[in-house]
Amino acid sequence: MSDLLNLTRRHFLEKAALGLGGLALSSFDLGAGSKSLSEIKTHFAPRAKRVIYLCQSGGPSQLEMFDYKPALQKYHTQELPDSVRKGKRVTDFTAKASKPMTKSFVDFKQYGQSGTWISDLLPHISGIVDDICVVKSMHTDAINHDPALTFFQTGSQLTGRPSIGSWLSYGLGSLNDNLPTFSVLLSKGSGRTDGAQPLQSRLWGNGFLESLHQGVQYRSGKDPVLYLNNPDGITHSNRREVLDHLQLLNQKYLEKEGNAEVYSRMAQYEMAYRMQTSVPETMDLSKEPDYIFDMYGPESRIPGTYAANCLMARRLAERDVRFIQLYHQGWDQHNDLPDHLSKQCKDIDQPSAALIKDLKMRGLLEDTLVIWGGEFGRTNYCQGKLTDTNYGRDHHPYCFSMWMAGGGIKPGLSYGETDEVGYNVVNNPVHVHDFQATLLHLLGMDHERFTFKHQGRRFRLTDVHGHVIKDIVS
User: Fold this and answer.
1) What residues have CB less than 8 Å from 459, skipping those under 6 apart?
2) What is the mean pLDDT of the chain?
3) Does the pLDDT of residue 10 top 60, yes or no?
4) For the segment 49-77, what is each residue's pLDDT rounded down to a tens digit?
5) Using an 8 Å Cβ cutoff, are 173 and 36 in contact?
6) Is 337 left (phi over 0), alpha (psi -120 to 50) or beta?
7) What is the distance, to the nearest Å, from the Cα of residue 167 to the centroid of all Cα atoms in its chain?
8) Cys-Cys with 215: which of 41, 182, 343, 345 at CB 3.0–4.6 Å?
9) Domains contained in the chain, CATH given
């Protein structure tokens, strides 16, 4: 009787959540007697097994990289016409300022059999255009950095939703029991060293999913994962003994309280124990041959750089990590764009191209989806003072460029089109939710059926929107 009196509302909800969690897992058809998330069946045959997402934080300028607009030469310094802007919102930075359209400081050329236009800032990426699909017609709902990046990573501008990697960890599970399903690497760009947009850990957070699905951040230096190493005086066998006893205590707590999060706690302790061996081996680049470092560029020998992280992404992909997220900061050229953007492009050009070549060489590109892009693009008009050699560009959510490769993406394709001055999409628009729906499709998941019930509502990565862009799927 006392046990019934102690069954508070919180206890009831936790026990109910445990039951719902079991139902959620069963809906993915684990198979008779199976306990492994890695055996969860997809909705249909996947084209990709894993994802490497090269996220460029800050908003890369498509007009200096991928979206060639020679008409801006003709209209240079002329005010953006109202007929082009169509009353669309702009940021507070330029709302009341003049908006002189601005030509690019860099030249473009066509490359490969596909004839894709690429700027001179990207000589290495120009060499892989027949392996990638450049999407020029991306558009988003957000105009400022934090909500825009949150939107891309979680499907909502509001905080608290699970990130893409967490959704995939929940839905598809792990391909490697000794490394985290969702791995995160950060690097700082050399293009804007002051005031680069900060990155919040919630961007790789689990939201309302169990905590075992959150991303694990790797760091350069002695301790790649914080708190992973044993303290002084604690041996590996000591650690095993402690975990065994802790497992018994957690099991008793689980039986008493019925809290689904206990499952996550138990799984994380065990994963950390296995990572004590697997992470040092994965992060050790000393056995990589010189020709690999030469391919990725000299900075690939410097831990924590974008180049080193691209090489690390390949090593994680080799070890079947499901979702590998690289964040590269510094793409926010409100001023000094010619100087700052040139440096940012130098950061990413050779390593990004090398990653595609390396994956292809090892037979991994076929089932690895690689994504490159930021949270929005830049305006076709100048922000701040416009001179013959210098200018800046503001945030632009209405059209921008990304590229993808491998994992079922059509190679050598330039998809979508913007108007002659690069302000609006005029053909084949791709919304953020369309991008997310296509990503899930390539991994064998129907974005409309891939849901999680939370607080009485069935949530999904694409919210209530989005469709698969089948034209870019091979």
Assistant:
1) 161, 208, 451, 452, 453
2) 88
3) no
4) 999 999 999 999 999 999 999 999 999 99
5) yes
6) alpha
7) 12
8) 182
9) 37-223+289-472 (3.40.720)
* Stated length of the chain: 474
What tokens were used for 349? 């050009």
